[in-house]
Amino acid sequence: MSERLEKGIQALRDKMDARIASYFSSCVHCGLCAEACLFATESQDPIYTPIYKLEPMRKVWSREYSFWGKLGAMIGVTDNVTEEDFANWETLVYDSCTMCGRCSMVCPVGIDITYMIRKEREAFVAAGYTPEGLQAATERAINIGSPMGVTLKTLQATIRSVEKETGLTIPMDVAGADYMALFSSMEIVNFEEYIAGLARIFKAAGVSWTVSSKGFEATNSGIQIGDPEAAKTIVERVVSAAEELGVKSVISPECGHAFMAIRWEGPNLIGRQYPFKVIHILELLSELHENGSLQLEGMTDTPLTYHDPCQISRRGGVIQQPRDLLNSVASNFQEMSDGGDMNWCCGGGGGVSANERADEIRLQAFNIKKKQLAELDGVETIVTACANCRLMLEDGLEHYELSHEVTGLTELIAEHIKQ
Amino acid sequence: MFTDFIDGPFWTFSVSVFAIGVIWRLISIIRLGVPGDLAVPREDGGAGGMRTILSRFMARPAVRKRALLIVVAGYMFHVGLFALLFFAQPHIDFYVDRFGVPAWAGMPRWLFILTAEIAFAGLIMAWLYRVMHPVTRMLSGIGEHTASWLVFFVMLTGCLALLEQYDSLRVLHFFLAELLLIYFPFSSLMHTFTFAFSRNYTGATMGRRGVDA
Ligand code: SF4
Ligand code: SF4
């Protein structure tokens, strides 16, 4: 057995906790999870069945934790995980799973398949079977500070541009501010309108906020690829920046997986609770609107819909807030079928967007969004709250020759600030 | 002689294997432990776990409309089997006799027969789905087929025993049920117990995040 294979198997073994053992003991192989996964439904290929993506992990469980598997291993008839398994499953684990969590919501015995895929990816890292695109993004995140190679200089250039456009000052490194805002690289590079919207809203609502020059990147490729050490390093960067400035809260940007990383996984990665609160921008906007600090005016009658980023809604619990916000500025907001906690993924979460190899299956899976959009009545505008979803939606729409416009919710809210 | 063996020592053996096996399996799961969650929760995990244990008894509309056949077959089989196991008069009489528990009201005979037919039809539908649908065909292994066939024969002989014409049919039904008890802890039939653990783990995690899973 090669060293890398041994490491991979050992990592699978190490991940085996009561949750995973209970999950594998409970699976009745009913196939319902396949009906929830966009890669399975849109390709109609059974290999994309969510639980099947866990076959390497199941093999280890079976050999080491099940009666028949142990017996079979003793007499040499139970298969062990092979290098071939890692090679064959790499695309299933990384290219055709966005860790969107939809399968986990429908399993009749309650298996959280997404949790296991997240853990299984760690074994793929240990065995050295990971997509090049994600490897490179993780290396950039560790060495440069951003998966897209965004440096402090890039941020400063964007900030200058935003300040020029808005006539407002973006407060950098202000000790003792109430809030420290984080961004995703994509917002800094592709969607500076998010930063402009934030500046306008905070000015109007009288929010004390700052941006740290030492920890501004919220995304975490370490989590996406399944490298706990890298993930921890990236979280620690933000935590120490927030601690140094002594802020009360850290604002997760619109980006879905950034919210997952900093809000739900971060404390577990660094092994302690934060001395500050983490709040998603949509939660904060909703709070500011509710308590009257953020006054809005005007209603758009443009028909629009909302695409729930999976990590914000289904896996993150921010479901009602975007709807409340939209309903306060839009008179023709239409829900997609399955909207909310069962929304269909854009196809590019969980590192899939950083993995060019996955483009073909991702765009095939996007067909589900096309179907959802076709059911709406005259909707040409999609509002979302994740820069990655936004790019993936734009890419999918272009691929299917659809003319919908995609916009960010924060920007939309900023357009309705009461003057 | 064979009847005495099936009614006596083999019953004691099979029920012991079942009880010890199930407890051993559950302990071997629990002892692996779960890492704590340091993220500040939005809601109580315990409540979320309980909510998911109960809510997953209902299939979500999103999946119900896509896989109606297997969802209906699943309900027919599980609800029917539950009713048969706990409310069929012969089974109640058996529990009273073997475990000395006080009797409870059973189903009328017509309902008992109807329930048996529904459960049986559900099992056959689920098995046909298993062998015909590309996803379940790919996922299913010898374990699922063994369990399906064992349950099938237990139910078939149970229906035949209902005629009450030959004691040998009752003994055969009982013998097969004992085989099922022995097989149970070593198979995916364990989901009868572990489903609550799985739903609880998932529900608690998601509940802490404020998601009704
Ligand atoms: S839905 Fe759940 S029980 Fe059914 S095959 Fe998928 S993981 Fe297994
Ligand atoms: S998490 Fe989403 S993409 Fe991954 S297997 Fe489940 S449904 Fe499919």
TrEMBL record, chain A:
Transmembrane ranges?
A: none
Report keywords, A-Z.
4Fe-4S, Electron transport, Iron, Iron-sulfur, Metal-binding, Transport
Q: Note whether DNA-binding occurs among the keywords.
A: no
Gene Ontology terms, MF aspect:
4 iron, 4 sulfur cluster binding; metal ion binding; oxidoreductase activity
Superkingdom of the organism of origin: Bacteria
Domain 4Fe-4S ferredoxin-type, residue spans: 18-47, 89-119
Q: What is this protein's name? A: Fe-S oxidoreductase
Its ancestry begins with: Bacteria, Pseudomonadati, Pseudomonadota, Gammaproteobacteria, sulfur-oxidizing symbionts
From TrEMBL, chain B:
Q: Which organism is it from?
A: Solemya velum gill symbiont
Q: Which SUPFAM superfamilies match?
A: Respiratory nitrate reductase 1 gamma chain
Read off the Gene3D superfamilies from this record: Transmembrane di-heme cytochromes, Chain C
Keywords, A to Z? Membrane, Transmembrane, Transmembrane helix
* Record-annotated membrane-spanning stretches: 12-34, 67-89, 109-129, 141-163, 175-198
Stated name of the protein = Nitrate reductase gamma subunit
